[in-house]
Specification:
single chain, 449 residues, alpha+beta, Beta-lactamase, Lipocalin, 11 helices, 21 strands, 24% strand, globular
Length: 449
């Protein structure tokens, strides 16, 4: 009898040890909870689109009918919502609930996982990434400034797409940064591949399972799949229906909570980017466009193997636009021409709608710039090489002069101009008083004298 008692005790101890060893997965809350607690207001009635909106919808449908079910673009699906109802939804060669790779639009969901972690107190987005991935210390080129989670989310870590010198971090081969973090925007997937490793470290499970747990399930995206191929930068499959469901939640949450909403947090502006009234930048996994200091759109695009996606959320208009396609070659001219046309149509669509009564939410407390041109003019020096550049104005046109190069600057945004490079834009760095402190040209950093 004693022998059996000892065996029972031993089994109990082993079971307890196994329980201790098993990773304790933290379950997220219900993002719909506050909406469901409120006394339910009647759903707004479906609004009949105005003449201009109807014309845009008709042109979109004509464009897709002319191009879909062709060799270059075999199948497409689309959905346009307004005031929580679909104005139009359709598909050619597939269904509106067909799963398609959303490619780089997956980054929006990586950003949402990070906001979940922040709200649960598991991270601070200004934490250095070496706190979670110790090898990441080797990516630092400035001992006084470490790469943070925010830098990765906003593509401002200094990490490029490719580089000769690379560093091993959590099993990934990461290109060595050329610039210190925080000073320049450079879109590069390695940022989000590192974020996936941080997600795995915090959630104690593979990245794709974390996306299912922290985004797909709580936001009720029943047609979305994050499989083993998801990398942080891409790999998620979704539908235009699910993207529209996500947009609808974000818009309702924005109307209810304003500055404390998911959209306002995802629209966080990077350091060095002013709130100048009309602005475009990369927030926390989402592209952001401000108009008069308000969030006009949150959006992302994706292109990769057999998957193209366009996803727009227009909070001021309670509207959204979702499009997916399955081209065998995403880079084909026909595919990209259709994509570019739809991006323009998406913005025209929002402009054609009546605004809803949303709160004004600026993503930054920086001052509004009035007389812009004087801010940029002056000489700038690279402290490492002592090389100088000059920004000057001639006949109302801004120019950059560097050695023998004299480049006219084409305005893209108050912090970004197009120069003479197809790879790099000319970017200006602003301080908290909306004054220019530096310029980045061809990936080199010059501080204002």
């Amino acid at each position: 009898m004693r022998r059996f008692v000892k065996i029972d005790i031993l089994l109990f101890l082993i079971a307890g040890l196994i329980f201790e060893i098993q990773p304790q997965i933290i379950i997220p809350g219900n993002p719909y909870e506050d909406m469901e607690k409120e006394e339910k207001a009647p759903e707004p009635e479906k609004v009949k689109p105005g003449t201009r909106t109807q014309k845009i919808i008709s042109e979109i449908q004509t464009l897709l009918k002319q191009n879909a079910e062709t060799k270059a673009l075999p199948a497409v699906a689309y959905q346009l919502n307004y005031r929580h109802h679909p104005l139009v939804a359709g598909a050619i060669g597939m269904d509106v609930d067909s799963q398609v790779s959303i490619a780089s639009t997956s980054k929006t969901m990586t950003g949402m996982v990070m906001i979940q972690f922040m709200r649960m107190g598991l991270i601070d987005i200004d934490d250095p990434i070496s706190k979670y991935l110790p090898e990441a210390k080797n990516l630092s080129i400035d001992p006084n400034k470490q790469i943070t989670i925010r830098h990765l989310l906003q593509h401002r870590s200094g990490i490029p797409y490719t580089a000769k010198n690379r560093v091993k971090v959590a099993g990934l081969s990461i290109p060595m940064p050329k610039l210190p973090p925080g000073v320049s925007f450079q879109y590069a997937n390695p940022n989000f591949n590192l974020l996936a490793k941080i997600v795995e470290k915090i959630s104690k499970q593979p990245f794709y399972k974390a996306v299912q747990l922290y985004v797909v399930e709580p936001f009720r995206l029943n047609g979305t799949l994050s499989g083993p191929g998801a990398s942080g930068a891409a790999g998620i499959r979704s539908t235009v229906q699910d993207l529209s469901i996500l947009a609808d939640f974000l818009i309702k949450d924005f109307k209810q909570k304003g500055r404390k909403s998911w959209l306002a947090e995802l629209a966080l502006n990077p350091e060095g980017i002013p709130s100048t009234g009309n602005q475009s930048y990369y927030g926390l996994g989402w592209r952001v466009t401000l108009r008069n200091g308000e969030i006009f759109s949150m959006h992302h695009y994706g292109d990769w193997h057999k998957g193209v996606c366009i996803f727009y959320v227009f909070p001021l208009h309670s509207a959204s636009f979702a499009y997916v396609a399955t081209p065998p070659d995403y880079s084909a001219r026909q595919v990209q021409n259709v994509k570019l046309a739809l991006i323009n149509y998406a913005q025209d669509y929002a402009d054609s709608l009546d605004r809803t009564s949303n709160p004004q939410v600026s993503s930054s407390g920086l001052n509004i710039i009035k007389d812009k041109s004087k801010l940029y003019i002056g000489s700038y020096t690279n402290s490492r090489t002592n090389e100088s550049v000059n920004i000057f104005s001639k006949d109302g046109q801004l120019y950059l002069k560097r050695s023998d190069r004299e480049v006219p600057l084409k305005y893209l945004s108050d912090w970004e101009f197009e120069g003479d490079s197809t790879e790099y834009s000319v970017q200006f760095y602003f301080d908290e008083n909306a004054k220019v402190r530096a310029v980045i040209d061809m990936g080199d950093y010059f501080q204002k004298n």
